[in-house]
Amino acid sequence: MNRRQFVAASGLGFAGTAAAQSTDLPPCAYIRTADVVYEPTPRGVVETMLDLARVGTGDVVYDLGCGDGRIVVAAARRGASGVGIEIDPHLVEWAQANVLAERVGERVKIWNQDLFLTDLSAASVIALYILPEMNRRLRPKLFRELKVGARVVANGFEVPGWKPDRVIDVPTRYLNAYLYTVKPEDKTAT
Ligand SMILES: C[S@@+](CC[C@H](N)C(=O)[O-])C[C@H]1O[C@@H](n2cnc3c(N)ncnc32)[C@H](O)[C@@H]1O
Questions:
Q1: Residues 166-176: pLDDT tens digits?
Q2: Which of 15, 21, 116, 132 has CA 20 to 30 A from 152's CA?
Q3: Ligand 1, residues 30, 115, 137: which to mutate, most atoms within 8 A of Cβ?
């Protein structure tokens, strides 16, 4: 069952805001091979990440490589808006279905894009659970496109060469979560 068939079969396409979305789903397509395989952040760690970045009403949270969309859905439950960026079209369909099922479609969009090519300038918070080398490659783009004061919360792997404001040892895991804030001096760094 594809995404449009899911929407039709679920009946969500006839329910208020979901009706608008069901006719408005952007197309999904193979772009290129993903840079990292899918592994979801455990739901408890999602909440830890959102706490760390103090996500709340008015925030715009981008998850770069959003998988099933759980981080942006959880952000929406806190009153934020969310944008999930995902290169794998099957995961895009899954995330979109979750957004509809959780009825947060008014505040959450899933975009089938390469995260390295996405314009990040509207984000107040960026969530990352990607490999250190990807974080390193992304850093100049984060400095260039994010506003001063924007937060970056990274699960598992730090952003090499960027000093975190806080590091949280996530219980029961061997991975940390890292919080960064874009500072004025970062705007001129590379
Ligand atoms: C480790 S998973 C994290 C999923 C989700 N953020 C979470 O924490 O539950 C990394 C995700 O990044 C996606 N991905 C890999 N390379 C990408 C790229 N260049 N652009 C967008 N997404 C990408 C993968 O398909 C995968 O879903």
A1: 999 987 667 89
A2: 21
A3: 115
Please give the distance, rounded to the nearest whole angstrom, from the Cα atom of residue 67 to the centre of ligand 1: 5
At 35-90, the pLDDT tens digits run 999 999 999 999 999 999 999 999 999 999 999 999 999 999 999 999 999 999 99
**Tokens 């783009």 appear where?**
141
* 80 Cβ inside 6 Å of ligand 1: no
